User: Fold these one by one.
Assistant:
Number 1:
Amino acid sequence: MTPRLDVPEGPGGPPVQLWNLRPELLPTVQAMIDGPYHRSCLPAREREAARMRIAELNDCVICRDYRAGSARAGGATEELYAHVGEPDAAPYTERERLAIEFAERFALDHQGIDDAFMARLRGAFSDAEVLDLSVCCAAFLGLGRLLAVLGIEPVEVAADTAARESTAT
């Protein structure tokens, strides 16, 4: 997909150069990334399971392909990422399954997060952890949708898409 905005040319391509359109917002975006990755109290596997489910639902290529070193060091594996859309197909813990389910409901049907589900969630997570998971999901959902809606993709994906589009015409 071609970016839907006129993103300046430069190192790193659209994912990096996008922020030159409004550099004063970059600290806000950086804070949204910093919170989940450097301030979350959740184990990396739980946070990453929720992040990947939202990345799939957002259809955000950058988000789906991203693997933080800190998440890998915290036990996030390709097996973890591979099955978040079908959590019964992988050996997730109860908390990982709940994080995936919460992320999906958060992204697709937040008003469907009823008292019964919250009781299940609070049976496995402390209130502080539920808040943490909610903030993480908000950051993942917002930034992922921003990138997907604006057509911002990794440089190599954008180049492949442009090549396909030019041969199709």
Number 2:
Amino acid sequence: MCARTRSFQFIEIYLPIILCFQWPSFLTLTLRVKPDKDVKIEVDRIIASFRKLRKRKVWDVKRGIFSIEIVKKRDWGWFVHLHALVDSKWIDQAALSDVWRNITGDSYVVDIRRVGNPKLGLREVLKYQTKIWELNEEDKEFVEKTFRHKRFINSFGIKKPENPNFKKMKCKICGGNLEIMPDEVPVRRGGNP
């Protein structure tokens, strides 16, 4: 199943929930790029670090959905970061950065900002986990093999609803199955969903 298909599925599942967020905010957490680090270890590291962050005092968040994104930088190796749409009244960015550095030991670049349109924030979180089209064949094969059964999208403080009555269609790009709500456009022409 292609990333676009997964993205549409998750948007339809989580959109009714995030529209109820009282204070939707978009969060980005990064790990320092280390050319010699194994990307699989770094993905596990950011997930474990995020779990620790959610137990810290600075974390005043009710619920959220997050995704892990990996990007290949030509001379630097793999860049691993986390995007989240969270329901939080306020998180001080400087304090968040200090706590993130304390947890990771070397990474402090974070961003949190209020979202005007929760649906666009959700799309940003869910759009893709890697820019597969930017990778050479060797890296594509590596990503597909290494992360085949890895969960890159998750939520906390949310009970995932049962899938509503989805309509099945074929993706015009990859030919995979699309499951979308009736009256939704399955593939937008040009750009990312």
Number 3:
Amino acid sequence: MREILKCPTGAVLAISKVWSIGDSHELLTDDKRLTMLQKVMEEHQYQRSALLEILHSAQELYGYLDRGLLTHISKSLNLPPSQVYGVATFYNFFRLKKHGEHIATACMGTACYVRGAEEIISAIEREFDLKRAGSTADGRLSLFITRCMGACAMAPNIIVDEEVLGRATKEAALERIKLLIEGLKVETR
């Protein structure tokens, strides 16, 4: 059964496949996530001022914000795609690519950089054969960079699956990541 989705801009989505761009999400009208996203936009009355909240909801539902999803939000809120993309890329919380099963995020703020974050990042790239803002071929690990975590006294900082490794070393970061990828329980400090 097809569902007809309407938004204040006059767009009506009544086809099974809305669009697919490259490795983008295929937005299907019978996809429960799309229905839930539409409800979020309705709750915010398709107000442009709710863009940040809507992007957060979209990422929670889909895991990341690809071009197709950003375009859908742009059309639904009657905003220029450049504005939606600008907001999504300004905040480092948002992901524009599908991420791996495990995520390592390295801080490259001044304190972390000066205290050796670059060396840790390079070691992770070599050990797991991936690049910054990318994932391993098997999708097990993604590596992201952020500018500052606000924990400069503990520099260098690496976040591995939401756990902050303060005063990180390349050995500690590599060990933590390897244990997680192997599915072993990791004890927190």
